[in-house]
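Quick one, probably user error.
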């Protein structure tokens, strides 16, 4: 894993945008793995700007999102379908048919998980996966204890995760208790991974990811076994990394 420490959230967003833009220029039909949450918002804003002002072309790009809440329809303002449309897809020229997000309202959710895995395979696998990280080290919605060999599956959300995400809802009671997420094995198959972390509340998780034991108790620690991971962290998020101390 390579740690890139940057001075600001803006710098983190630009670093990630450069990586995504370079990939798309090199491989116009790249397959991107995308995350929601607050962390990638600056990245998406910058990608939209580059599309508008510099012609960054998404017309051949395919995308797969990590996760979705169970029970939220795509037009629910707190759904990840809605989030992605508002913050990225409505503002770039990606083809609607090339955008994939697990359905939180599929009649047969087990079948939906299988279908999602198959769609990733059919697309040739993910070239670059963007990840945020939970305060407890989760990636996607793979909470502590998720087996490393998991594929797309339904999860019970940890209370800490529900609390952290309550800001997107009117109250914590509205935060769904379950979600669909790519599994750890699904994420690990991406050819390159960019984990973005901003702010001191991520410091414990970032340090454990980079320097801790590889254990399902800290899901992101599995990334130590991936050949091509960049952890891009601002100073707050990198504050507990031992090799930077002194
Ligand atoms: C989002 C996701 C989550 C978030 C994580 C951090 O699709 O899979 O793992 O990346 O919860 O969220 P933020 O960025 O809001 O701190």
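Nope, works fine. Designed sequence:
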């Amino acid at each position: 894993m390579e740690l890139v420490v940057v001075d600001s959230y803006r710098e983190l967003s630009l670093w990630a945008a450069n990586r995504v833009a370079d990939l798309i220029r090199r491989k116009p039909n790249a397959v991107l793995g995308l995350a929601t949450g607050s962390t990638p918002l600056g990245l998406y804003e910058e990608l939209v700007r580059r599309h508008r002002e510099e012609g960054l072309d998404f017309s051949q790009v395919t995308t797969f999102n990590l996760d979705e809440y169970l029970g939220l329809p795509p037009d629910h303002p707190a759904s990840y379908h809605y989030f992605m449309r508002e913050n990225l897809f409505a503002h770039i020229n990606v083809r609607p048919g090339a955008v994939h997000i697990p359905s939180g309202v599929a009649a047969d959710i087990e079948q939906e998980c299988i279908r999602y895995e198959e769609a990733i395979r059919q697309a040739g696998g993910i070239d670059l996966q963007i990840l945020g990280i939970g305060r407890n080290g989760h990636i996607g919605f793979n909470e502590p204890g998720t087996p490393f060999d998991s594929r797309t599956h339904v999860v019970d959300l940890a209370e800490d995760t529900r609390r952290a995400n309550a800001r997107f809802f009117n109250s914590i009671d509205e935060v769904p208790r379950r979600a669909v997420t790519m599994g750890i094995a699904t994420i690990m198959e991406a050819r390159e991974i960019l984990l973005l972390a901003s702010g001191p509340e991520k410091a414990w998780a970032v340090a454990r990811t980079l320097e801790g034991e590889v254990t399902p108790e800290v899901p992101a620690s599995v990334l130590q076994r991936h050949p091509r991971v960049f952890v891009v962290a601002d100073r707050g998020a990198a504050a507990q990394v031992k090799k930077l101390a002194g």
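The radius of gyration is 17 Å.
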